[in-house]
Amino acid sequence: MVAIEVWADVRCPWCWIVSRRLLRVAERSHHEVRVRRRSFLLEPAGPETAGKPIAEEAMATWGMSARQWDAKRSLIHSQARSEGLEIALDTALTFDSRPLHRLLKLVAEAGESSPDAAWDAAFAAHFHDNADLNDPAVLKSLAMSWGIDLRQAERAVSGLTHTQAVLADIAEAQRLNITSVPTLIATSGRRLVGNVSTARLDEFLTSEGAEQ
């Protein structure tokens, strides 16, 4: 069995693309692959202005020119389509991902829905549907679609539960010197970072499996 820990933020489009690649490669692997989802926050305190379209934020706050943003968006859209994903990057809204990470921790704990499926649905809500994930009602509705009890969802969204689980992942990421996502780390300590290809993922899992 090959165990892989994946640090990601739902706000990261590369995290969705690489997640899809990893699951596809894992399905055809000769080894059983267990993926553990870990939380990472691109903006630990949340965005300065939540609810703004990402394209607007990129050029107003991140210092990107229109030409730079066009190139970045084109690359992301192209890579996403190769995995069967349609991403509406310009109109996706900035949001504080901490409540959503708490819900994803709740999913993993409750065992009513696959964490992989929940993460995929969270990515889709952000990048495909452009849902307003700043809205607690939207988050609760998403959680209930995963089979999560409404009261449990409300407590996680408000930060009454699962805050420490997210903070523990962040602390572990700091200990391991993880500074960007996606980051994949195997039991051996090998890691892959960023927009890794299907071929590299296949080689990664094969190498890990050969050592078991």
Question: What radius of gyration results from the CA coordinates?
Answer: 17 Å
CATH class: Alpha Beta
Number of helices: 9
Low-confidence stretches: none
Q: Note the overall shape.
A: globular
Task: Tell me the number of strands.
Answer: 4
CATH architecture verdict: 3-Layer(aba) Sandwich
How many separate domains make up the residues? Answer: 1
Mean pLDDT: 95
Helical/strand content category: alpha+beta
The largest sheet, given as strand count, sense and whether it forms a barrel, is: 4 strands, mixed
CATH topology: Glutaredoxin
What helical percentage do the residues reach? 40-55%
Corresponding CATH superfamily = Glutaredoxin
List keywords for this structure.
9 helices, globular, Glutaredoxin, alpha+beta, 212 residues
Description:
The structure is a single chain. Helix 1 runs antiparallel to helix 5 (115-127), helix 1 (13-28) crosses helix 9 and helix 6 (136-145) packs across helix 7. The chain is 52% helix and 10% strand. The protein is of the alpha+beta class. The chain has helices spanning 13-28, 54-60, 66-81, 98-110, 115-127, 136-145, 150-158, 163-175, 198-210, and strands at residues 2-8, 33-39, 183-186, 191-193. The longest helix is centred in the first third of the chain and has 16 residues, at 13-28. The protein has a four-stranded mixed sheet with strand order 2-1-3-4. The protein has one domain: Glutaredoxin (3-Layer(aba) Sandwich), CATH 3.40.30. The chain has nine helices and four strands.
